[in-house]
Design brief:
The complex is a heterodimer of chains A (about 240) and B (about 375). Chain A is about 30% helix and about 30% strand. The longest helix of chain A has 16 residues. Chain A is globular. Chain A has one domain: Rossmann fold (3-Layer(aba) Sandwich), CATH 3.40.50. Chain A is built from seven helices and ten strands. In chain A, helix 4 packs across helix 5 and helix 5 packs parallel to helix 6. With about 375 residues, chain B is of the alpha+beta class. Chain B has two domains: about 170 residues, no CATH class; about 210 residues, no CATH class. Helices cover about 50% and strands about 15% of the residues of chain B. In chain B, helix 10 packs across helix 12. The model of chain B has no long low-confidence stretch (mean pLDDT about 85). Classes of the chains: A alpha/beta (about 240), B alpha+beta (about 375).
Chain lengths: ~240, ~375
């Protein structure tokens, strides 16, 4: 299905999604009938106050969790019905994740961290290293390939995180507060990079953020409030 | 193999903890090697040749003597090919710590029934010619630098000579080798006729008999016939396979197999807890990282495999180093100066050690791996 506004094929289609967590005897409705369509190549910012369900929605789109009700389709494939094992394989092929705290393996070099998702493929070591080199070059860190995370600045670590996210050339890049732990300068560099990945390489990116400055770099911003999606922050 | 750098890196995460755990595993396997060598020395010193040999001893205990006249009666029993005897001499060379076995034997019979001792023919002939002649195993000859032609004084702790002295002199006429590693080349054998004539008492009596049977499959039946032959006599007998006899000898100090198994059981159980705790702690510390691995596509089974592989690598590394150290330390032979002539780390125990280290890795890794496998991705990412 194509997006009616852009005409591009929809990569993400979320339909009537509800997510209920049970805490003791109480049901907590985190998402209430969320609907979202993200066309291919879009850089979407997802904003909302803490506890509004942003990360939960991102987890559902990324196949890290199952919705209580509703459907989630990515590139035409229903993922809400996949088993955990098939979902893991699906994530390996289709999604790249970028986390707020980078979540790099401290015991591995930048190069080895970026290689991690490729360990699940059938590529040879030489092919894996070639992909890693390309991803590190894309984020401008070829010269830091042999450095450990503790030897890199926060911004550089996040670049390695992005390189890990794109090394398999996924359908979708999901970023959870990617600039949340960085100063303004480093944050801007990361936003520049994400923008370039979307505009120059056609990557579809969904970014959860609290920061209006960050969301301003996205091509579209939507808001989550009390489990409901709107296009207006005041709703 | 492509996951090895990841597994290895995780082990290097807390170097001190890994090294300490590794050291405890190494110590456990060195101990395993030593106890295996001790058990081998005490219980395993019987070559395959012993399968068709039976030992006939006094029914009461191995220190009670048997009459010399039993030999002919034994050889008349159906199934018995030949019989010969030995007697415990209990001698000391220069110093009590210089312990090794010396037994009086009848040379021809003894060498025929013990083909595992290799003696050059000319030395055998010299032994037959020399009444005070003795042959000694290569290990003891090298230990005391004895050569053919040497006169060796040995002080018996049991047998006095007719002149009241306990010092016996023997002429070394031959040095024998063992046919294989399991053959004990520490004993000294001398002529029974010289011994019997010179000793002050118990003439015509011997320590025990070795009998060669015609068919090893009929060993139990022949043993019963031998014991029946001497039933209700002044010296009733107990006939058993050579292996059982050697083990009974060693069991005088206790149930060796049970003692070693108990010690090793306690050691490995402790190591199991130590290693299990290390891996478990390591998994708990990495909850977030495991969540990231799952997020990028590692399946539950892959995460389970990674943790199990980490625990197996740690255990195999420690076990391998420990077994190698034990092998190196035991390869110098008997550390007691003669009490444990067949002290070596048997290859089958090395293989057993490797299997134990794999099993230990699997057991210690199983529960932490299960814990890692069951982590929900969204939950574990929240814990970062």
């Amino acid at each position: 299905m194509n997006d009616p506004k852009t005409g591009n094929a929809a990569v993400v289609e979320v339909r009537d999604v509800e997510k209920v967590f049970r805490r003791g005897s109480e049901d907590i409705h985190v998402l209430r009938g969320a609907n979202l369509t993200v066309p291919s190549g879009e850089f979407l910012a997802l904003m909302g106050p803490s506890g509004s369900g942003k990360s939960t929605l991102l987890n559902l789109i990324g196949g890290l969790d199952h919705p209580t009700r509703g459907t989630v389709s990515i590139a035409g494939e229903r993922i809400d019905q996949l088993s955990d094992r098939r979902l893991a394989a699906w994530r390996a092929r289709h999604v790249g994740f970028v986390f707020q705290l980078y979540n790099l393996m401290p015991v591995l070099t930048a190069e080895r961290n970026v290689e991690l998702p490729l360990l699940l493929t059938h590529l040879s070591k030489a092919e894996r290293m070639q992909h890693v080199a390309t991803a590190l070059a894309a984020v401008g860190l070829s010269h830091r390939a042999q450095h450990y995370p503790r030897q890199l600045s926060g911004g550089e670590q996040q670049r390695v995180g992005i390189a890990r996210g794109i090394v398999t050339d996924p359908t979708l890049l999901l970023c959870d507060e990617p600039t949340g732990d960085l100063d303004r300068k480093a944050g801007d560099e990361i936003l520049d990079l994400l923008h370039a990945l979307s505009s120059e390489h056609g990557k579809t990116i969904i970014m959860v953020t609290h920061d209006p400055h960050a969301s301003a770099r996205a091509s579209r911003t939507i808001y989550l409030n009390k489990g409901e999606l709107t296009h207006d922050p005041k709703d | 193999m492509k996951f090895l750098p990841l597994i290895w890196s995780n082990l290097r995460r807390k170097k001190t903890r890994t090294v300490l755990t590794l050291l405890s595993i190494i110590v456990a396997f060195v101990l395993f090697g030593f106890l295996s060598a001790i058990r081998q020395a005490l219980l395993g010193g019987v070559s395959l040749e012993g399968a068709n040999r039976l030992i006939v001893r006094h029914k009461v205990s191995i220190i009670q003597l048997l009459p010399m006249s039993y030999k002919e009666r034994m050889e008349r029993i159906p199934g018995v090919a030949m019989a010969t005897h030995q007697t415990w001499f209990g001698g000391i060379y220069q110093d009590p710590k210089n312990f090794f076995m010396q037994n009086p034997v009848i040379p021809d019979e003894f060498m025929r029934i013990h083909p595992e001792f290799i003696l050059p023919p000319e030395q055998m002939r010299a032994w037959q010619r020399t009444r005070t002649g003795a042959v000694v195993g290569r290990k003891t000859a090298e230990r005391f630098n004895w050569k053919v032609g040497d006169k060796v004084p040995i002080q018996s702790s049991i047998w006095s000579r007719k002149d009241g002295g306990f010092l016996w002199e023997f002429d070394i006429v031959g040095i024998f080798d063992g046919r294989d590693k399991n053959t004990d080349t520490t004993p000294l054998f001398f002529r029974y006729d010289y011994f019997d004539e010179a000793r002050s008492g118990a003439r015509g009596e011997v320590g025990w008999y070795s009998i060669r049977i015609q068919d090893s499959a009929r060993a139990a039946e022949v043993a019963k016939l031998v014991d029946a032959e001497f039933e209700n006599s002044a010296a009733e007998t107990k006939t058993e396979p050579e292996g059982a006899f050697v083990q009974a000898w060693a069991q005088q100090v206790g149930d060796i197999a049970l003692i070693t198994a108990s010690i090793l059981g306690a050691v490995f159980f402790t190591i199991l807890l130590v290693t299990g705790n290390t891996i478990s702690q390591s998994v708990r510390e990495r909850t977030g990282e495991l969540g990231v691995l799952k997020a990028i596509g590692f399946t539950n089974a892959a995460v389970l495999g990674l943790v199990m592989a980490e625990s197996c690598l740690l255990s195999l590394l420690g076990g391998g180093i420990g077994l190698a150290v034990a092998w190196a330390l035991t390869s110098h032979g008997d550390p007691t100066g003669g009490m444990l002539p067949l002290f070596f780390f048997p290859v089958h125990d090395v293989v057993l050690g490797v299997l134990i280290s794999v099993a230990m890795g699997l057991v210690t890794g199983f529960f932490p791996a299960l814990q890692a496998m069951r982590l929900r991705v969204a939950d574990s990412l929240r814990r970062i």
